[in-house]
Amino acid sequence: MLRLLLLRHAKSSWSTGLTDRERPLAVRGREAAPAMGRYLAEEMLLPDLVLVSPARRTVETWELVGPMLPERPGSHLEPRIYESKPERLLQVVQDTEANVRTLLMIGHNPGLEELAAKLIGHGDRYAAARMAQKYPTCGLVVLDFAVEDWRDVAPRGGRLDRFVTPASLGEGPDE
Asked: Which of 29, 30, 40, 138 could in theory staple to 45 by disulfide, Cβ–Cβ 3.0 to 4.6 A?
């Protein structure tokens, strides 16, 4: 079994004078990201590898999530995640090495939300309904695949294990 964790970056600032790629996290984002990191640790949702979009807000999200984990997994910036369509994101997933059993991808909407919707074949229908309604910043989708190689991850092949948001962790409203 392989597990895919899709984490949307935490709430970012809309500071003037910065490009989209340079936007930092807002105060709310700097609070939500460590809470999500603690959740990952408490639930033993521990990645073997973390792929992070090169945008500042995704990098800062990982910098706040990572220290909450009991062990810091390998991570690297993956340019293909930034502003990508779900098909390209799926290719990133399928390119993952076979020794990685749990992959965490930190990226953006609408790409992550569309990828999650594309991959879900069955699972928690209430979580799917909440996700379809809104995939807020710092939202986390957990998908399981009954395959042994990432190349075999396919549309409708995943089981939605859960959908977690900052609000569901008591970290304020979902944005």
From this structure: 40
Task: Assess if residue 148 is contained within a domain.
Answer: yes
pLDDT tens string 65-97: 999 999 999 999 999 999 899 999 999 999 999
Share of the chain above pLDDT 90, in %: 90
Distance CA 124, CA 53 (A): 27
Q: How far is Cα 29 from Cα 12, in angstroms, rounded to an integer?
A: 6
Domain CATH code at residue 142: 3.40.50.1240
In a domain, 62, yes or no: yes
Left, alpha or beta for 161 (phi > 0: left; psi -120 to 50: alpha)?
alpha
Domain assignment present for residue 175? The answer is: no
Number of domains, the chain: 1
Q: Is 170 left (phi over 0), alpha (psi -120 to 50) or beta?
A: left
Encode pLDDT of 44-67 as tens digits.
999 999 999 999 999 999 999 999
| pLDDT per residue as tens digits for the range 130-161 | 999 999 999 999 999 999 999 999 999 999 99
Q: Which helix (H) or strand (E) holds 144?
A: strand 140-145
